[in-house]
Amino acid sequence: MRDDELLTVPEAMACLKIGRSALYDLLRTRRLASLTIGRARRIPTHALADYVQRHLEEATQ
């Protein structure tokens, strides 16, 4: 996966291995960054990496 790649919601769900509701909850609460292009929601791959890194750091505290 490239750093500048944009993922669809189903692709991001597959990467994080979570369901649709859980992903949209992360987006709604702004814990996971995204952008909207027209009516399409896209998640940058670097946003997934940032989320995972923050989540790991919180788990070790």
Report on this structure:
The protein has three helices and three strands. With 61 residues, the protein is an alpha+beta fold. It has a three-stranded antiparallel β-sheet.
Quick tags:
61 residues, alpha+beta, 3 helices
Structural class: alpha+beta
User: Helical residue percent?
Assistant: 40-55%
The helix-strand sequence is EHHEEH
Average predicted local confidence, pLDDT:
93
Described by strand count, sense and barrel closure, the largest sheet is: 3 strands, antiparallel
Shape: globular
N- and C-termini, Cα separation: 29 Å
Gyration radius, rounded: 11 Å
Identify low-pLDDT runs. none
**How much β-strand is present in the residues?**
15-25%
The helix count comes to 3
Total strands: 3
Work out the oligomeric state of the chains in this entry: single chain
Q: Within the largest sheet, what's the order of strands?
A: 1-3-2
Care to give the gist of this entry?
The chain has 61 residues and is an alpha+beta fold. It has helices spanning 9-16, 20-28, 45-59; strands spanning 6-7, 35-37, 40-44.
